[in-house]
Amino acid sequence: MFESDWKESVEQKIEFKNLSFKLAKIAIDSFYGIKYWGYLDKIEYIQLSQFADQYDITHLKVCLILV
Q: Highest taxon of the source (predicted)?
């Protein structure tokens, strides 16, 4: 995301307008191997999956498939 001509790379920041702090933290923590699976309700899993699709976060998509 930061290595392309996307808005985020130009501004050097990311705003998650449609993602709660809780889900943003879970998404970031997943990169460090911290798992919260079973901690989320069905709607939160859907929101996290949509977020992963929106930003093409393959690692997070794989984690969600394994749930």
A: Eukaryota
